[in-house]
Amino acid sequence: MPKIQTPMAGPGPTIRAVDPWTPSAGRMHHLLTDDERARLAVMASIVRFKKGEVIYREGDPADVVFNIITGVVTAYRKALDGNEHMVAFLLPDDLFGLSGEGRYTNTARAITAVAAYRLPVTALRNRLSKDAELEFHIICKLCQELRQAQRHAFLLSQRSAVTKLAMFLQFIEQLQIAKGEQTADVYLPMDRSDIGEYIGITLAAVSRTFRSLTMRGIIKVRDRRHVRILDRTAFEKIAGDPIEESGVASALPMRR
Amino acid sequence: MPKIQTPMAGPGPTIRAVDPWTPSAGRMHHLLTDDERARLAVMASIVRFKKGEVIYREGDPADVVFNIITGVVTAYRKALDGNEHMVAFLLPDDLFGLSGEGRYTNTARAITAVAAYRLPVTALRNRLSKDAELEFHIICKLCQELRQAQRHAFLLSQRSAVTKLAMFLQFIEQLQIAKGEQTADVYLPMDRSDIGEYIGITLAAVSRTFRSLTMRGIIKVRDRRHVRILDRTAFEKIAGDPIEESGVASALPMRR
DNA sequence: CGGCCGGTTGAGTACAATCAATTCTGGTGG
DNA sequence: CCACCAGAATTGATTGTACTCAACCGGCCG
Q: How far apart are CA A152 and CA A145, in angstroms?
C-alpha cells in the first residue's frame, strides 16, 4: 500500500519554509534532509485528487496528514447560514490535516488536480517521538502557517474591498516569486468565487473590484487567470508595502 | 539574571493545550512534565509588564519567546492607514513571540498587568534539539494557536456585527469554562475598543451591537466587564453552535 | 471642580450585499 | 469547424448595515 513512488516531486515529503528564528533574507529552504524525507516516505503513500474533490470533511476522524506535492487545496468552514468561508489556501510543500483534535476542524477540497503524500498520524507520531530534528522542522512550518493565518485575519479586517483584493494579489505574487516562477503576470489558480470566499466579499464584489483597479490603471486583467500589476507604487499604497509588513526585506510570509 | 522564581504559577513555564490527535473530550492538560518545566525554568527569567506596556514591536529582532503566567496580551499589526488590527489575544499558558523570521511580525502589548516567562530563543532552540518530547508539546500548542487563528479569520469573515460579537463572547466564555472559572457571567478583561479591533468593527459599532443584543433580551450587560447570556438558544443561533463548530462535544478551540 | 478617558448615542453617508439579468468562455459533440 | 451548452464572470438597480463625525455622558483622579 505505501507506494514509495518518486514522481517529479522527489524522494519523499517536502516541507519547505523559513526557519522562524534565523534572518534568512527570505530564502526558503527545504527543511528536510534527504534522509528524513526517505524515512517519511516509508510511511507515506501518494494520493491524487481531481479538481473539485473533497479530501476530508469537518468532523471526520483526523487520522491522516497530507503534504502537497502539486496542486492547490482549500480549507473551508461552514457558517451557520450555510455559507462557507475559506480559511486557507494550501499549496505545494504545505502540510495540512493536522489542525484537529481527533477530528478535522475544517473541510479540505482540491481546486485543481492534486497529488499529495498521505501520512498516517499514528506512524508520524511514532516517528516524531524519536526524531527531534524532524519535529523542529515541523515547528518551523507551523510557525509559518500561523503567521500566514494571522496575515489572513489582517486582510479580512480591512474594510475596503480594493485593499483586500490588492493584499490578496500581493500574497499570491510573493508566493510565486518565492517559488521562483516567472512573474510578469500574477497567475491565479483559483476562480473568482474562491477569491471572494478567501477575502470575505461576494463574487460580484470581486468582479467590480477588479474592474475598479483596472479603471484606475493599477492592474491589467489579461484573462481570468492572469493579472499584471501596472502601477506598482499605487498598488502598494493600497495593499501596504510587503517589506514594511514583515519587517525584513524580501521576507516571504506566504506559504511554500 | 535568570530568576528561577516560583510565583503562584508553579515551578516553571507551562504550556497547556490539547493534543491535536487524541480525542480528549476537550479537557486541557498541562503538556509539560515537572521535569520539563524545571529544565525550561533554568533558562527562563520572569518579567512583568504594566497594563498598556508594549512588550515588543513589529520588526524588532526576535530573540526571546514569552510564556504567559498571568494577564492578557494582545498582538497587533499596523494597517497602512495607521489603524491597528489585533491578530490575537494571548492568555495564561500561551506562547508568543515565535512567529517571526528573525524579527517579530507583530506588536505585543499588555492590556492588563502581565507576568511571563521570558525564554531566550538560542537557549530554547538548543534545548529543543535534544528534547523530542518538549518539541512535540510545542507542536501541539502551535496546532492549537493555528486553529485559533483560523477561527478568528472565520469570525472576521462574518458580515453581521451581531454574529461577530456573539462569536466573540462565545470564545471568551469557552475560555473561561476551560480555565475552570465560575461563569455565570462572561468576564471581559479587555475594553470595548480592543473588542472592536479584534472582531473588526468600530468602537461605536461594538456599543450598538451590545445594545442590540440587550434589547432583544439575549444578553444582559451587568457592567463594562461582565455580560450574562440570558437566552442561550437565541444566542447560539446567532453565534453558531460551538459543539458543531469543532466537531467534538466540549472541544475547546480557545487558547488557555 | 475640571479634565480626561472610556463608552454611548445620534444623523447622514458610503460601500458592499442582494437579486437578477446578461455576457463571456471553454469544452463537447455534431 | 461550428453550434451549442453550462458554468463562470460581469454588470445593473436597489437596499441595508456599519462607518464617519460629532455630541454627549459618567466615572475617576488629580
A: 10
* C1' (D26) to CA (B196) span, angstroms: 21
Burial class of residue B12, CB neighbours in 10 A (0-12, 13-18, 19+): buried
Interface of B with A in 167-196 (CB under 8 A): none
What is the three-class DSSP state of A34?
helix
* pLDDT tens-digit readout, A67-84: 999 999 999 998 877 788
Strand A29-30 with A64-70, pairing: unpaired
In sequence order, what are the residues at sequence separation of 6 or more whose Cβ sits closer than 8 angstroms to the Cβ of residue B40?
A: B12, B13, B32, B117, B119, B124, B127, B134
For residue A151, pLDDT beyond 70: yes
The span from the CA of B162 to the CA of B89, in Å, is: 20
Spell out which residues of chain A touch residue B142, defining contact as CB-CB under 8 Å: 139, 142-143, 146
